[in-house]
Amino acid sequence: MKKLKVLYKRTGRNPEVVEIEDTLIEKQKLVGGLIEVIPYYDKLLICNENGKLDGLKPNVIFDYDYIAGNFFIANDDYKNAGFKSLNNKDIECLKSQLKSRSVNYSDEEMKEILQREKEELEEFYKDYEKDIVFNEKIHNSELENNDNERID
User: Fold this and answer.
1) Where are the domains of the chain?
2) pTM for the whole thing?
3) Which residues does residue 71 pair with via DSSP β-bridges, in sequence order?
4) Given a cut of 90, is residue 136 above it in pLDDT?
5) Contacting residues for 133 by C-beta, under 8 A, at least 6 apart
């Protein structure tokens, strides 16, 4: 499985370099839900699509907008409609940019943020498990239908 080296920015924390598998599930885990891809200079910023609607705390502020919740930044692999790893030069530049745009929180607010992240991740896994069970039922039902058609 292809690995991606990305810059991960959790709410109220400094950006950190993480390596993830290049799968939708891994990307969704990082942002805590459905992903939204936003152009950021010549990079891609990947955040929670429903971050603001779900009431996630602001993470970084831009001119007239902000990113709510955790996000990460990767290079654009436009030729393959995907993402590419960041290089060390990109990472250092991005860390500096994000640090100046970051929203800082008190210790008490950070406890709330971390508790919410934990709950969202637990909810994500519950939904993911339900999807797997649902897809297995559909798959098994289709197999049964195909077997019945062959018998008739």
Assistant:
1) 3-148
2) 0.74
3) 9, 47
4) no
5) none
